Amino acid sequence: MNANKTVIVTGASSGIGLAIAEAYLKRGYNVVGNARTMDRLQAAAQQLGNPANFLPVAGDIALPATAAALFEQAIAAFGKVDILVNNAGIFLPNAIGDYTEADVNTIVSTNLMGFFYPSQQAARHMSANGDGHIVTISASIALQPTAKVPAILPIMIKGGLNSATRGLAIELASSNVRVNAVAPGIIQTPMHGTDEGTVGFLNGLSPAGKMGRTQDIVDTVLHLTDSKFTSGTVIAVDGDSITDIAVAYLQGVYRGDAATLATLFDPHAQVYGEINGLPYHKTIAAYLEGVASRQSPLQLGEPYRMQILAIDSIGNVATVKLHSPMLGLNYQLFLTLRLLEGKWSIVNKTFSHIQGC
Q1: How far apart are CA 308 and CA 319, in angstroms?
Q2: How many whole angstroms separate alpha carbon 270 and alpha carbon 279?
Q3: What one-character DSSP code corresponds to residue 299?
Q4: For residue range 137-183, what is the model confidence (pLDDT) as tens digits?
Q5: What is the pLDDT of residues 235-287, one digit of tens each?
Q6: Coil, strand or helix: which one is 22?
Q7: How many CA atoms lie within 13 A of 269 on its CB side?
Q8: Closest Cα to residue 221, out of 57, 27, 74, 49?
Q9: Contact 200/277 with Cβ under 8 angstroms?
């Protein structure tokens, strides 16, 4: 049996699910991928380079037998399951009066039952082990509906999954099983195609004026994987979220990605702080120069231990409190954000190295 950690990813043959599977494989995880047919999973495995630690398990995720088979085969091959990513889902927008009975049955089967049965298996298995993590890919439209896209069925089901995430996190907390969700906005995936009219319309649905990338979702899933004290959280990744900025900031600092960090800060932002009682002040340009020139925590092999501690907003301003232990220091910091022309940006960063915590 492989001693590495194991993750089950549903809907793993393309789009977000395939990208999540690839990211975990790069981390050395065993990945058990599910899709409706073995042909699709074999094509996905080929895209991934046919790794020995990728186990395809085909079947309709809405069926209890498929969920059971996923866990049975994962445990037989790798010993146990550490993470379940409920990614399988479909999106059928329509006016309420135009949905058919077949539409209702399809969405309920894939989006609701495809969440419940794998999560039930995960809860049983992980509770017995005293450890585990369930991550569900939800949808930001369930958090903030829009008149441009009537979609009451997905809103109803995905909104229910958001509530179930919070409820299940409480239910499983005593078993040391964490439960979180990621709620994507419009993400560029193969299902949207490349038609200019469609792409233009979808870009226009985001205040940022563009669709998100699958990598944006992957980064957030990995952030939750590494945030060992985070549970019951639903993180919106929709190009208009304060949480998006916070996650992107933490990921950028960890990877030493000065280019990404530059997109998050106002060009006139200032950085203030203290390290061991000594004052620190830099312009954002000087700060980013330092990030680009130093070895990143990732390059140094440090584990990702960064966390979002709190978010507060009043109108067009917001503050985010973060914990960022890295490079031998234990940083706690505040980011101040401002919403201008539909986009949040960081206008100020203050930090301090906290000893002994």
Answers
A1: 11
A2: 14
A3: T
A4: 998 888 778 788 888 999 999 999 999 999 999 999 999 999 999 98
A5: 888 765 687 788 889 989 999 999 999 999 999 999 999 988 899 999 999 99
A6: helix
A7: 24
A8: 27
A9: no
Q: What are the structure tokens assigned to 14, written together? A: 């393309």
Structure tokens at 82: 């550490």
Q: In what order do the strands lie in the sheet with 234-237?
A: 54-58, 30-35, 6-10, 83-86, 132-137, 177-184, 234-237
Q: Mind giving me the DSSP string for 92-132? A: --B-GGG--HHHHHHHIIIIIIHHHHHHHHHHHHHHHHT-E
Its CATH class, for the domain covering 6-240, is alpha beta
Length of the chain: 357
Residue tagged 């509530």 (tokens): 163
> What is the widest separation between alpha-carbon atoms in the chain?
67
CATH 3.40.50.720 residue window(s) in the chain: 6-240
Two structure tokens written together for 289: 């120069």
Q: Which two tokens stand for residue 337?
A: 């954000």
- Which CATH class name applies to 248-353? alpha beta
What's the CA angle centered on 207, arms 205 and 210, to 5 degrees?
65
Residues 6+ apart with CB under 8 A from 140: 183, 184, 185, 236, 237, 238, 241
Contact call for residues 331 and 325 (beta carbons, < 8 A): yes
DSSP letters, 147-192, are TTS-BHHHHHHHHHHHHHHHHHHHHHGGGTEEEEEEEE-SB--GGG
